[in-house]
């Protein structure tokens, strides 16, 4: 019980983990990276600014108190404790600073001596941070009042703290006697503040606003990530969702937010088990999240197995904890804290290694998680008596959880954009011919079918040009394939420069090219085809030692009613072959009367075309 309580009462190191086409594209990436570097200083000082804000927010505004305490023993009575206080037999402490009160045996007695009040205003004694166990107040008339985080009967509920409403008489200086009842959770330091009711209500409202905003940010980021997980089918977003929601559960139990103001009374009595389970599961989700978010298979494949193993081990510990078998439950209590600490070290090491090896998301993880890890180490040190003045660390952990949620959400967005850009690059490579950078036959066919459908819907004319280089086989045979590749590259550049951006140009195969012209008449299309012939001929690419230069034969076909892409290409190809048979190096439009008279005949082979 104590081990599990330790995981609840203060964030362990692992709790922090659980909260934790080239020219234009290259230019854009460089600018983004430059902007990121220019703004890193702002991201670095944000956590520091938040810490300073907390130190101001938690500045004491209550009446001065003097305090003393001792551990409870058998046979103690309130009268004996008050008498010992009057004779100075108790250990003195400063109530405005954090003080640790043991609660593992019979509990501890605490006596607070207030200054005389100046008015008849009602005052409130608050204990912050809210202890996990119960605290009893002994009145001067002998009555007692006991408060706890999961208490739903008290007339005044403190948010993030326990609050006792006190009756005030002018000049009254009677000491206030409290008893911290025994608890199975780990003892944590507390401080005390005595305020007028109005001041307390204002401070309580400020804390409630602050905590609600932080939890709302974390939940909103988690829900948004879950939506993206469903839409993108990417488990990275799902692990982040579980990761963040578990941290919200841990923090809301520690601060009592689940009970006040949310009023989840059905959790009363089971918060220890729920919190311990959420702590363990958060580490599991964090491990699986880091494995995908930081891209361990690419940047740190050796570390992937232990990180994923940690993600599997933590749910097993939760199952042991919930088994209701004493031996297994004790085993879970023994394992949980060492595994949490080792897991935190493993994830920190993994994030640093992947970041140093070039994983950009790993830097987002470290930026969001490191401040929370520092706060966790500081709160752990407070249990040993260190840093008694920094009573705002617990609230800072809530704020840093919201900060981490925002940073990791930005990291997920950056990762999604990077993956989309990479996918687009792959798609471009798959759609483009590697030599000429024109659309390959598959990509051109898909685009041409789309353009043809649009033209039919809009009743626009479509012209299709089928281009075949003349004497290309002879060029390859006599000068080699390297010369042929250079010729194809030069021709593709000329064709691209002569056609409109809206025209669809692609390499159909070998030395064949196709172009689809949208919204042009046959006369205009013939002018374009003739211009292409002249431009290719003016390249003066020598085929042999004589005066023979590379040229192009072009067949033209206009879309007619009932045409498909295949029929359109077939007619343009037949018109191109007519050019081959009649001198090459010019363009010809398909004529149905010529087809009927047998003038057009498709070639049987490439050799026949080269004749």
From TrEMBL:
InterPro entries: 7TMR_DISM_rcpt_extracell_dom1 (IPR011623), Diguanylate_Cyclase (IPR050469), GGDEF_dom (IPR000160), Nucleotide_cyclase (IPR029787), Rev_trsase/Diguanyl_cyclase (IPR043128). Signal peptide: none annotated. Keywords: Membrane, Transmembrane, Transmembrane helix. Its EC number is 2.7.7.65. It is an enzyme of class 2 (transferase). The chain crosses the membrane at residues 41-59, 207-230, 237-260, 272-290, 302-320, 335-356, 363-384, 396-413. SMART domains: GGDEF (SM00267). The keyword Transmembrane helix applies. The keyword Chloroplast does not apply. It catalyses: 2 GTP = 3',3'-c-di-GMP + 2 diphosphate. Residues 460-592 form the GGDEF domain. It comes from the Bacteria. This is diguanylate cyclase.
């Amino acid at each position: 019980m104590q081990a599990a309580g330790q995981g609840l009462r203060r964030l362990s190191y692992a709790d922090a983990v659980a909260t934790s086409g080239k020219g234009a594209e290259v230019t854009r990436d460089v600018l983004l990276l430059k902007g990121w570097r220019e703004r890193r200083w702002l991201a670095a000082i944000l956590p520091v600014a938040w810490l300073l804000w907390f130190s101001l927010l938690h500045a004491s505004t209550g009446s001065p108190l003097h305090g003393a305490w001792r551990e409870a023993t058998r046979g103690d009575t309130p009268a004996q404790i008050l008498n010992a206080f009057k004779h100075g037999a108790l250990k003195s402490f400063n109530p405005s600073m954090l003080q640790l009160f043991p609660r593992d045996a019979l509990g501890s007695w605490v006596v607070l001596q207030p200054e005389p009040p100046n008015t008849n205003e009602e005052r409130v004694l608050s204990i912050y941070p809210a202890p996990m166990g119960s605290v009893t107040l002994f009145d001067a008339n002998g009555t007692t009042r006991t408060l706890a985080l999961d208490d739903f009967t008290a007339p005044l509920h403190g948010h993030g703290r326990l609050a006792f409403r006190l009756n005030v008489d002018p000049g009254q200086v009677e000491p206030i006697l409290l008893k911290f009842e025994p608890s199975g959770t780990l003892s944590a330091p507390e401080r005390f503040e005595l305020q007028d009711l109005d001041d307390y209500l204002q401070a309580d409202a400020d804390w409630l606003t602050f905590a609600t905003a932080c939890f709302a940010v974390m939940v909103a980021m988690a829900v948004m990530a879950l939506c993206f997980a469903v839409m993108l089918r990417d488990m990275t977003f799902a692990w982040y969702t579980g990761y963040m929601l578990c941290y919200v559960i841990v923090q809301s139990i520690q601060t009592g937010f689940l009970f006040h103001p949310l009023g989840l009374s059905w959790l009363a009595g089971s918060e220890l088990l729920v919190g311990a389970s959420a702590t363990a599961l958060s580490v599991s989700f964090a491990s699986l999240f880091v494995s995908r978010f930081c891209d361990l298979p690419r940047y740190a494949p050796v570390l992937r197995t232990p990180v994923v193993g940690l993600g599997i081990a933590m749910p097993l510990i939760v199952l042991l904890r919930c088994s209701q078998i004493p031996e297994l439950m004790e085993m879970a209590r023994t394992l949980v804290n060492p595994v949490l600490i080792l897991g935190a070290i493993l994830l920190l090491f993994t994030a640093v290694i992947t970041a140093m090896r070039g994983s950009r998301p790993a830097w987002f993880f470290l930026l969001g998680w490191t401040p929370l890890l520092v706060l966790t180490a500081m709160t752990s040190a407070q249990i040993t008596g260190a840093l008694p003045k920094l009573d705002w660390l617990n609230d800072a952990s809530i704020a840093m959880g919201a900060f981490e949620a925002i940073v990791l959400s930005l990291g997920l967005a950056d990762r999604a954009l990077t993956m989309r850009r990479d996918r687009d690059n792959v798609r471009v490579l798959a759609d483009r011919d590697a030599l000429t950078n024109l659309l390959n036959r598959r990509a051109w066919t898909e685009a041409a079918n789309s353009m043809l459908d649009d033209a039919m819907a809009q009743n626009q004319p479509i012209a299709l040009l089928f281009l075949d280089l003349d004497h290309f086989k002879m060029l390859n045979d006599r000068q080699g394939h390297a010369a042929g590749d250079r010729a194809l590259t030069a021709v593709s550049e000329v064709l691209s420069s002569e056609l409109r951006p809206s025209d669809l140009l692609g390499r159909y195969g070998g030395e064949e090219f196709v172009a689809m012209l949208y919204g042009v008449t046959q006369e205009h299309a013939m002018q374009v085809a003739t211009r292409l012939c002249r431009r290719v001929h003016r390249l003066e690419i020598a085929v042999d030692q004589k005066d023979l230069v590379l040229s192009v034969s072009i067949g033209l076909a206009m879309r007619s009613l009932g045409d498909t892409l295949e029929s359109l290409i077939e007619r343009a190809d037949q018109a191109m072959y007519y050019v081959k048979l009649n001198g090459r190096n010019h363009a010809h439009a398909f004529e149905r009367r010529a087809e009927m008279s047998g003038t057009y005949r498709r070639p049987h082979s490439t050799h026949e075309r080269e004749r």
